[in-house]
Specification:
Order of helices and strands: EEHEEEEEEEEEEEEEEE
Oligomer: single chain
Number of domains: 1
Structural class: mainly beta
Strand content: 35-45%
Distance between the termini: 48 Å
Number of helices: 1
Shape: elongated
Low-confidence stretches: 1-18, 23-53
Helix content: under 10%
Length: 266
């Protein structure tokens, strides 16, 4: 088995809330235990066949994250940073629908702009909800194990080197997402079985049963593949999209999960 190489750029530490697989309701009306975990989780409401709700339609969309400039990161980058710096705090000095520039020269320092451009793209994603001039912390993760997985979180900070954020209050999550991996957020990220594949579908093992999955955020908003919705968590309103979420039973097929969320427009 190939060794795993993990690269972590830690810009932000948030309270840990793990991502879990939530089983669906059993045919007898009881609850179904998550495979290999011993966990038993109930699902609200009757077991409606997913084919009737469109949740068995499978998408294969991607969240792509690339950083260039002062730091070079991303699964598609051939030459990347030799070492991953962190923690990093900066000011958003430019933002458009698909990218933002982060200047890491502190407001109390006499230095030229230290710009890293983050380009983050996926169907439906628009970064223009970020506040230009806001001070932020960013967490970026990248790991390799038969495939490349990434995640990102961008969150405002109230002060930087003692200087008040000129554009926003602290603690707002502007952007979070993952492709093959889930970021750490102050609320739960679960994956809910949709019972699209026959029971007994061959599998290589692992904690997830072969199936299509919906994302569930903060225990309330459940989103099927290709769907976008809004929800409120941690005192903030978000817009989120399930880019893909399925496991077909292949060996080492752990990366077919991806989503993004942004601070919802007022």
């Amino acid at each position: 088995m190939a060794p795993r190489l993990s690269l972590l750029l830690t810009f932000l530490v948030l309270p840990a809330c793990g991502s879990t697989v939530v089983p669906g309701e059993a045919a007898d009306g009881g609850v179904e235990a998550a495979a290999d975990t011993g966990t038993v989780v109930s699902e609200t409401g009757p077991d409606v066949p997913a084919v009737e709700t469109g949740l068995c339609a499978r998408t294969n969309d991607r969240l792509t994250i690339v950083a260039t400039g002062r730091h070079t990161l991303g699964c598609s980058i051939g030459t990347r940073d030799a070492g991953i710096p962190g923690p990093m705090t900066g000011q958003i000095v430019r933002v458009d629908a698909t990218s933002f520039d982060l200047d890491t020269c502190p407001p109390t320092a006499d230095c030229v702009p230290l710009i890293t451009t983050f380009k983050v793209t996926a169907p439906g994603l628009d970064l223009r909800g970020m506040r230009e001039k806001s001070y932020v912390e960013v967490t970026y993760t990248e790991s390799f194990f038969f495939g490349c997985s990434t995640s990102i979180v961008v969150r405002s900070v109230d002060t930087w080197t003692g200087v008040k954020n000129p554009a926003d209050v602290g603690g707002k999550i502007y952007l979070a997402g993952g492709d093959g991996d889930d970021p750490t957020l102050p609320f739960a990220i679960d994956k809910v079985r949709q019972h699209c594949l026959p029971e007994g579908t061959p599998t290589c093992g692992g904690s997830a049963a072969p199936d299509h999955y919906a994302y569930r955020f903060a225990g309330t908003a459940t989103i099927g593949m290709g769907e976008t919705t809004t929800f409120t968590a941690a005192g903030q309103k978000f817009e989120a999209r399930n880019l893909r979420a399925y496991y077909l039973g292949w060996c080492d097929e752990y990366w077919d999960y991806a989503f993004w969320l942004t601070s919802a427009k007022p």
